[in-house]
Amino acid sequence: MVLAVIFVGLHFFARYKVGKLLDVIDKENFSYKEYSINLFQGDLSIKDISYQSNQQSVKANQIQVNNFNYLSYLILSDSIIVDKIQIEKPRLQLAKSRDTSSGKSTKTKFSEKIRVNGLELTNGRLSYKTDSVKKFKVPKINLKIENIKTGPDQIKQKIPFLYGDYFLEADSLNFVANDYQDLSVAKIEISEEEVLLQKLRFKPTKTRKDYVNYIPYEKDLMNLKLDSIHIPSYKFSYKEEVPHFSAGLLSLSQIDFSIYRDKTVKDDPRKKDMYSTMIRKLPIQLKIDSVALNKAEITYEEKIKKDRNPGKVNFKNLNAKIYNVTNLNLDRKDFPTTKVQINTSFFGKSPLEMNWQFKVNDTTDRFRFRGNVQNVPPSSMNEFFIPAMNVKAKGSMQAVYYDFEGNRNTAHGNTKLVYDDFDLAVLKEDGKSENKIISFLANIIVNKSPKNGSITSQVETVKRDKTKSFWNYFWSCLEAGIKKSLL
Fold it and tell me: Quick count: other Cβ atoms within 10 Å of Cβ 413?
């Protein structure tokens, strides 16, 4: 009888303590239908949980707590020890909120020490809205985390809890990036050891004709298909409130990337940073030993005049390795050089190599790129010669060699063209008919050399247009060398 009375007393006291803890969370915004306690098994069940505040909403069918150490909580009062927490069908609808506080803290006082051996979230849904356009949705999330610990001091940190092994699985992520582009990922798997993203798509939601109505100035319309992103080993942490990410390898496989730019709209007046500056300025401390691009195809199209087809450049079977992508310890004397090695096929017909290097810690953004392309037929050259230079190639280019170096302002270098029975037709403004007089003058230079000839040209200065990207700078260097050789 005495034991029964003690048990009943403990039961009601436990309900009182748990109820008091739930009420402390947030009386105005937090609600639940009911909760039940099993003292024998140490189980706690809370049903139909809901938290709503402004545009934030968190709901769950049930939270099941197993092996709750009631004795520790009842006696020590500030210590909560749980073996396992299961959250069924949580639904999170979140939005980026504006800070309308007047300096008064709205944080609830938190004094408990909590240890959870395992947390399991099943069949969750998440939506996050940053503004009227940008929306992020994940219709299915499963999450497991082991050895969770927190307390009054830890709760104030950037990551408010300590944790052990974890595994996140999500399906069908969708992100509305802007008025004309969407991002989707078919499957995401993240553990403490590795990251895997499968079937990533960054696709246009508007046609090439229509998307120009949604951009204030020149912007790319992109269509990216990526089979997988794999990071086999990584570390993520915060150091002095700054996120830190390091990985040995970042692997991107089976890439099909199409980029279209309509240059008939007004120019983007904003200055563009070089890649070294971009990495240097990242809001995260980054260290990636190597990045691998495998089996990629990249197509870039640029519409220069409304009455002409866009100029086109295509690279098939592209494989690339990038080494030493880091912005850590920028002041050290042995700071590594970032190196990019690219092997591809120009229009699937002409082998192309490129080696490019720069140092992230060099504030002048010095770089060097060199390489070659072999056996370029006139059909490939004319895809960009006609719209970009208003010239039409005849005959074949056996090889083009290039070697340039420079900084964020200017570059210099040389090109060598090896050709076979090569001449040029300079076109009129319509881009179709030939301007025979100028073509004759242009070909005097080419025809001075033997039938199987070569022309080497030194380019003294190429001035960078800082409102354009590095790749525009790269093309400006090649274009200067080719023009000096042929025109």
Answer: 21
Residue 354, judged by CB atoms within 10 A of its CB (0-12, 13-18, 19+), counts as middle
Q: Is 332 in a helix, a strand, or coil? A: coil
Express each pLDDT in 21-56 by its tens digit. Answer: 555 555 667 777 787 777 666 788 888 888 887 778
pTM of the model: 0.84
Contact between 243 and 284 (Cβ < 8 Å): yes
Structure tokens at 209: 């004709």
Distance CA 299, CA 258 (A): 5
How many residues are there in the chain?
Answer: 487
User: What are the residues facing 7 on neighbouring strands?
Assistant: none
Alpha-carbon distance of 442 to 344, in angstroms, equals 31
42: alpha, beta or left, given left = phi > 0 and alpha = psi -120 to 50? left
Using 70 as the pLDDT threshold, list the residues of the chain that sit under it: 1-28, 39-41, 70-78, 97-110, 387-390, 423-452, 486-487
Q: Which two tokens stand for residue 440?
A: 């004759």
Place of tokens 């866009």: 310
Q: Comparing C-alpha atoms, which of 206, 216, 144 is closest to residue 176?
A: 206
The whole-angstrom distance between residue 112's C-alpha and the CA centroid of its chain comes to 38
Q: Please state whether 336 falls in left (phi above 0), alpha (psi between -120 and 50) or beta.
A: beta
* Measured CA distances, 243 to 206, 285, 287, 354 (Å): 35, 6, 12, 33
User: How is residue 41 annotated by DSSP?
Assistant: T
Pairing type for strands 166-176 and 113-129 reads: unpaired
Alpha-carbon distance of 24 to 109, in angstroms, equals: 8
The 8-class DSSP code of residue 487 comes to: -
